[in-house]
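This part of the workshop introduces the protein records we will be handling. An example says more than a description, so a record of this kind follows:
>
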Amino acid sequence: MIDWSWITTSPIAVSTIVFKAILIYVALIFFTRLSGLRSFSKMASFDFVITVSMGTILGSTVLTEDPALLQAIVGLATLYAIQYAVSWARRHSQRVGRTVDNQPLLLMAGSEILTDNLTRARVTHEDLYAKLREANVLDLSQVRAVVFESTGEISVLHIPYAATPHVELDPALLGDVRDVDRLPMAAPAD
């Protein structure tokens, strides 16, 4: 005989899940409003870690007995406090910023693909081409720079097809990018 109990649940268990989901959601909204817009951003790698951790707390709180609801709320509050403290420290200390953040990496210098940097970032040519297509690049000559950002995203700086080809790339946009000196322009000033 097949045991079907693993599929079903009791009305009390269902109501507990709904109650915990509502309360943890209210706590999440409260902390997000208190903390500000950065709460779920992906501006830095530590933001992503915090967001994943929050999701783990939410999921485990709603569907399991442990952690208890109050423990989960304290855990969320702690993660928000950590995110706020690290963000504040990054704004006030370059050392903290260098410790917490990955440095952006140049993947293309103009139309030249920097294969060594692709290898360093563990990005394939296919990944790069997909991002170029996503940015509506029609020809590699349109590309001014492609940057592997500290968040893991890939930014494509290019000239749209209809734009004039003499548009200069503002060096301030690439001030913290590793290997920016490989661009076919003057290196940005510090």
